[in-house]
Design a protein that fits this description.
The protein is mostly helical. The protein has one domain. 55% of the residues lie in helices and 2% in strands. The chain contains 13 helices and 2 strands. Strands 1-2 form a two-stranded antiparallel ribbon. A hairpin with a 5-residue loop joins strand 1 (323-325) and strand 2 (331-333). Helix 2 (36-63) runs parallel beside helix 9. The longest helix has 28 residues, at 36-63. The protein is globular, with a radius of gyration of 21 Å. Residues 108-112 and 336-344 have low confidence and may be disordered.
């Protein structure tokens, strides 16, 4: 029987023995500071993700572009984000840090039952690792959908997440363009869900890798769809590109769409799916947020944190709805919004 988690564990073990341990020894890093297995998992995930982006997704953008740009200058900072995020492996790190909490609060493992979370409730899945992985991912995708809607609906959270949407040249590198605090919040939520489900660290790493690659592809600047039927089953670049479109004053609320990471079923079920719309320009109409495009990575982080800090301390920053940011990053409710989301 194919055991995805088992094969991954063997690969991590091999990389740990032959790469991570010698590297940590060379750098004289104490074993207590960083586990060789953690480093090995991080290096493997980084290598797989960057390799697939560079060797598959990027060539597709060259051959089948959704938009043609005179240059790709604005995408350069996104490549920096990708390198930092995949090498940092923030979700995996938080999951490993939070795992002791499960035992501290008397999880199933602490009572001598090896099965925890979902496996404790449905032992049948223990004999079907591929099905188990798909169920895990389905739950993660559902959580991600509502988390993503919250990022657009709550102004102080939009203040952070708007950095991701400020990009005018959305490409296969754009997925990791985000405020680091926003990434920390996301990772903490997903890690907590992982603990509740009883996901093993090796499985969590694969879940995060799958999610990252799906999003790298969905952000790619390619004119690719899966066909009328499959477009309803899986998120394609054309579907997600509409999520990044700028707001249209003549059709307010149109941009509040297509929040799902992998499965459009959530958008279809909860009324946020948009199909049949031609490609539109991406980015934001708020000039304060659009100014991110002229900033360096550090400058973008600082501006997003300023927007967040001001919004967090204002009543308007907690009231669901569209906002723009005025002088001093003051959140200004947008009366034109037809639904509680973002102004992009």
């Amino acid at each position: 029987m194919f055991n995805l988690s088992g094969h991954w564990s063997h690969l991590v073990e091999w990389t740990s023995d032959r790469v991570a341990v010698p590297l940590l020894s060379l750098l004289q890093v104490p074993a207590t500071a960083l586990s060789p297995h953690e480093l090995a998992a991080s290096l493997l995930i980084a290598a797989i993700q960057i390799g697939i982006i560079a060797l598959i997704f990027r060539p597709l953008e060259f051959w089948l572009p959704a938009e043609r740009w005179a240059d790709r200058r604005l995408t350069r900072v996104d490549r920096q984000y990708t390198l930092l995020m995949v090498l940092g492996i923030l979700p995996l790190s938080i999951f490993l840090a939070m795992t002791p909490l499960r035992d501290l609060f008397g999880g199933d493992a602490a009572r001598g039952d090896e099965r925890t979370g979902l496996l404790h409730a449905i032992p049948f899945l223990d004999q079907h690792p591929v099905l188990l992985f798909l169920v895990y991912y389905l739950v993660f995708d559902f959580v991600y959908y509502w988390m993503h809607r919250a990022q657009h609906a709550i102004p102080w959270w939009w203040a952070l997440h708007s950095l991701h949407h400020s990009q005018r040249q959305v490409s296969c590198w754009t997925n990791d363009r985000d405020c680091f605090l926003d990434g920390l919040i996301e990772a903490a939520i997903l890690a907590s869900v992982g603990l509740l489900l009883g996901v093993e660290p090796s499985e969590f790493a694969l879940l995060m890798l799958a999610g990252e690659l799906i999003q790298n592809f969905s952000h790619a600047n390619v004119r690719i769809g899966f066909g009328r039927l499959l477009d309803r089953l899986f998120v394609c670049p054309a579907f997600h590109r509409l999520h990044h479109m700028r707001a249209d004053p003549g059709r307010p609320g149109l941009h509040c769409c297509n929040f799902a990471q992998a499965f459009p079923a959530w958008d279809i079920l909860f009324g946020t799916a948009l199909y049949g719309e031609p490609p539109r320009a991406t980015g934001v109409t708020d000039p304060v947020v659009d100014a991110d495009n002229g900033r360096s990575l550090i400058g973008q982080q600082w501006a997003a944190l300023q927007r967040f800090w001001v919004a967090l301390r204002r009543r308007a920053g907690w009231k669901p709805g569209d906002v723009s940011f005025g002088a001093g990053y003051e959140p200004i409710p947008d009366a034109r919004a037809a639904s509680p989301a973002h102004r992009i």
